[in-house]
C-alpha cells in the first residue's frame, strides 16, 4: 500500500473545490488543492474581472488569458456547429469569470433530488449550507438566510437599475406576474431583483471569499498550473493522482481523492482513469476499471433572446454598468414542472452571438428553460489530458423542452411588445428581430429558429450524475462516492442529477460546504 502524503487531494479550485478544501483544512485535515490554471492572490486578479459586467473581461484578451479554458467548444443543439464554451480556469474557477449571480434554486429541485435517491440532499438538508455560505446584507436575519458567511449577497437598488431591468420588471408586473422581493426565499416566484455576489460593486469569487482567508493555514497547500491526468489506484482504492507540472509527470498521494474540476473536466479525469462508458474507453485504448455512464446526461439552460434597440436614455453609458438586475421565475402552464421558465433582463446584449441583433446599442429580454428533459453527451477526444473533451449539449432534443421553449419565447415577445417596453425601444422591434418574429406564429418554423439560434447560460451540470446506486444513470452515490471504487469522490456541479432551476454558482458552493462536513 502506498503511503499517503495528504489526507485529502481536491482537484479544482473552483466554486465547490475551494469551499470543500478550505472547510476540510479548517477541520484539521491535511489538504492539497490542485488547480490546472494559475494560482494567485486576490489582489493579483486582473481588474477587468472585478467589473459588474463580465463582458468587460471576456472581450479583453489580456484579462481572459489564462482565466478561461481555450480550445473548449460545444454544440448547443444538434443543428448548431461547435462554438466556444466558456469555463473558468485558475483560482476561483468559473466564479472568477461568471455573471456574479447569487441565486438559489427553488426547493423543488432538492425535493426531486431526494426522490431520486439522493439521501441527505432534501430542502432541510441543504438550507443550512446555503445559509452558512452567505452574508446577505438585506435578508441575513431571516431563518433561511445567513449573515457573516464568506459570500456577500447584494441587490442593486431599483434607482440604479438599467433601462432594460426596469422595462422587464414593469412589463412583467403589468402582465400579471407577482413581485418577490427575495428570489432566494424558499417559495419565491415572479419578478425579483437578482442577488449578486459582490461587495462595493466588485466581484467576490471563491478565491476571495474562501481561499484568501485560509492561505495561512498550515493544513492547506494550493498548487496552481497543475493539470491532473488521472487518478491512481492500489487495487480498488484511489490512492492519489498523476499530474503534469511544467510538462513533467508527477504523483501525489492521499487517503481521499475528490474531483472538483467541474462539469467538463471531472468526467474527463474519470474517463482517463478508466471509469466511464466501457466501449468508448476501449476505443481510446484506456483500460476499463469500471463501466459507468460518465459524460452522459449533461444539461444547461437553453436561452433565447428578443433583442431591443434602445433609446439613448435607456442605453448603458459605461461598459461597467451592471448587465442584469432582474429575473422572473414562472411556470409555463398546467402540468408543467414548477418554475420551469425564467425571464432575464440584459441591459447590454452580452449574449449577442445568440441573437439576431443588428443594433450597436441593443439590450435584450431573455428566456431560458429552467427545467430540462434533454441530455447532452461529453466524450474524450483522446487520452491526452491536454486535449479538450468533445461536447454535444443536445439542448431541445426532447420535444417536451421544445414545446415549452415555444411558450417561453412567445411570452417573452409579448412582454417586449408591451407599452412599458416600448418606452425604451428605439425603432422597430420587429425589424430588429425579423427572423424570430416571422416564425412566431408557426410551430414548425419557430422550432427551426430556436434549434438554430438558442445559446446556453453557461450553467453546465450532470456529467457525473448523483443518484440511487442501482439506477442506470448514476455515477456517484448520495455521498458523492464514485460507484465501484473506494476513496474517490466527485463534488461539483457535474454530480447534480439535473440542472437546477437557477444559475448554478451558489448551489455548487453549497455542495462543497455540505460535503466538507460529510468527508468524515
Topology:
Elements: E1 6-11, H1 15-26, E2 31-34, H2 55-58, H3 61-64, E3 73-74, E4 83-84, H4 107-115, H5 123-133, E5 134-136, E6 151-155, H6 163-174, E7 190-193, E8 195-196, E9 198-199, E10 202-203, H7 206-214, E11 220-223, E12 226-234, E13 237-245, E14 248-259, H8 262-272, E15 275-276, H9 278-283, E16 290-291, E17 296-298, E18 302-309, E19 326-330, E20 341-346, E21 362-369, E22 376-379, E23 390-392, H10 399-416, H11 419-422, H12 429-432, H13 434-439, H14 443-453, E24 455-456, E25 488-490, H15 505-518
Parallel strand pairs: 1-2, 1-14, 2-11, 5-6, 14-25, 15-16
Antiparallel strand pairs: 3-4, 6-8, 7-19, 9-10, 12-13, 13-14, 17-22, 18-21, 18-24, 19-20, 20-21, 22-23
Helix pairs in contact: 1-7, 1-15, 5-15, 10-14
Describe this structure in words.
With 520 residues, the chain is α/β, with parallel strands linked by helices. Helices cover 26% and strands 22% of the residues. The chain is built from 15 helices and 25 strands. The strands form 7 sheets. Strands 1, 2, 11, 12, 13, 14 and 25 form a 7-stranded mixed β-sheet that branches. A 6-stranded antiparallel β-sheet has the order 7-19-20-21-18-24. A 3-stranded mixed β-sheet has the order 5-6-8. It is globular, with a radius of gyration of 22 Å.
Short description:
This protein has 520 residues and is of the alpha/beta class. The chain has 15 helices and 25 strands. The protein has helices at 15-26, 55-58, 61-64, 107-115, 123-133, 163-174, 206-214, 262-272, 278-283, 399-416, 419-422, 429-432, 434-439, 443-453, 505-518; strands spanning 6-11, 31-34, 73-74, 83-84, 134-136, 151-155, 190-193, 195-196, 198-199, 202-203, 220-223, 226-234, 237-245, 248-259, 275-276, 290-291, 296-298, 302-309, 326-330, 341-346, 362-369, 376-379, 390-392, 455-456, 488-490.
Amino acid at each position: 500500500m502506498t503511503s499517503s502524503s495528504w489526507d485529502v487531494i481536491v482537484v479544482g479550485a473552483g466554486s465547490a473545490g475551494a469551499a470543500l478544501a478550505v472547510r476540510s483544512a479548517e477541520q484539521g485535515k491535511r489538504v492539497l488543492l490542485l488547480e490546472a490554471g494559475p494560482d494567485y492572490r486576490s489582489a493579483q486578479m486582473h481588474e477587468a474581472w472585478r467589473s459588474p459586467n463580465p463582458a468587460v473581461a471576456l472581450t479583453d484578451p489580456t484579462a481572459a488569458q489564462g482565466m478561461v479554458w481555450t480550445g473548449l467548444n460545444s454544440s448547443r443543439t444538434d443543428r448548431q456547429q461547435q462554438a466556444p464554451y466558456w469555463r473558468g480556469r485558475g483560482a476561483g474557477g468559473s466564479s472568477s469569470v461568471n455573471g456574479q449571480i447569487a441565486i438559489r434554486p427553488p426547493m423543488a429541485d432538492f425535493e426531486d433530488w431526494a426522490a431520486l435517491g439522493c439521501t441527505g440532499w432534501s430542502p432541510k438538508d441543504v438550507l443550512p449550507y446555503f445559509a452558512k455560505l452567505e452574508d446577505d446584507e438585506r435578508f441575513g436575519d431571516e431563518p433561511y438566510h445567513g449573515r457573516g458567511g464568506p459570500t456577500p449577497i447584494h441587490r442593486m437598488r431599483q434607482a440604479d437599475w438599467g433601462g432594460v431591468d426596469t422595462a422587464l420588471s414593469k412589463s412583467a408586473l403589468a402582465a400579471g406576474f407577482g413581485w418577490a422581493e427575495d428570489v432566494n426565499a424558499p417559495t419565491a416566484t415572479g419578478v425579483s431583483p437578482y442577488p449578486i455576489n459582490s461587495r462595493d460593486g466588485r466581484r467576490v469569487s471563491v478565491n476571495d471569499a474562501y481561499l484568501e482567508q485560509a492561505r495561512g493555514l498550515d493544513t492547506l497547500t494550493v498548487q496552481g498550473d497543475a493539470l491532473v491526468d488521472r487518478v491512481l489506484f492500489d487495487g480498488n482504492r484511489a490512492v492519489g493522482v498523476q499530474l503534469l507540472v511544467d510538462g513533467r509527470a508527477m504523483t501525489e498521494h492521499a487517503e481521499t481523492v475528490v474531483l472538483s474540476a467541474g462539469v467538463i473536466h471531472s468526467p474527463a479525469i474519470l474517463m482517463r482513469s478508466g471509469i466511464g462508458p466501457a466501449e468508448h474507453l476501449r476505443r481510446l485504448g484506456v483500460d476499463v476499471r469500471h463501466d459507468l455512464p460518465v459524460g452522459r446526461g449533461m444539461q444547461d439552460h437553453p436561452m433565447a433572446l428578443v433583442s431591443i434597440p434602445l433609446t439613448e436614455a435607456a442605453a448603458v453609458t459605461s461598459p461597467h454598468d451592471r448587465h442584469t438586475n432582474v429575473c422572473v421565475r414562472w411556470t409555463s402552464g398546467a402540468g408543467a414542472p414548477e418554475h420551469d421558465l425564467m425571464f432575464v433582463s440584459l441591459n447590454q446584449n452580452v449574449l449577442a452571438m445568440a441573437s439576431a441583433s443588428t443594433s450597436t446599442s441593443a439590450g435584450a429580454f431573455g428566456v431560458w428553460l429552467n427545467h430540462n428533459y434533454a441530455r447532452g453527451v461529453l466524450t474524450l477526444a483522446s487520452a491526452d489530458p491536454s486535449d479538450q473533451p468533445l461536447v454535444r449539449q443536445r439542448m431541445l432534443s426532447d420535444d417536451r423542452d421544445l414545446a415549452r421553449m415555444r411558450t417561453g419565447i412567445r411570452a417573452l415577445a409579448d412582454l417586449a411588445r408591451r407599452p412599458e417596453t416600448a418606452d425604451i425601444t428605439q425603432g422597430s422591434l420587429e425589424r430588429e428581430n425579423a427572423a424570430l418574429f416571422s416564425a412566431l406564429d408557426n410551430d414548425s418554423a419557430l422550432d427551426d429558429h430556436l434549434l438554430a439560434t438558442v445559446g446556453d447560460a453557461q450553467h453546465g451540470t450532470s456529467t457525473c450524475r448523483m443518484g440511487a446506486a442501482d439506477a442506470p444513470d448514476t455515477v456517484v452515490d448520495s455521498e458523492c462516492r464514485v460507484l465501484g471504487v473506494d476513496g474517490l469522490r466527485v463534488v461539483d456541479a457535474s454530480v447534480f442529477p439535473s440542472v437546477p432551476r437557477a444559475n448554478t454558482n451558489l448551489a455548487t458552493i453549497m455542495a462543497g460546504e455540505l460535503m466538507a462536513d460529510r468527508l468524515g
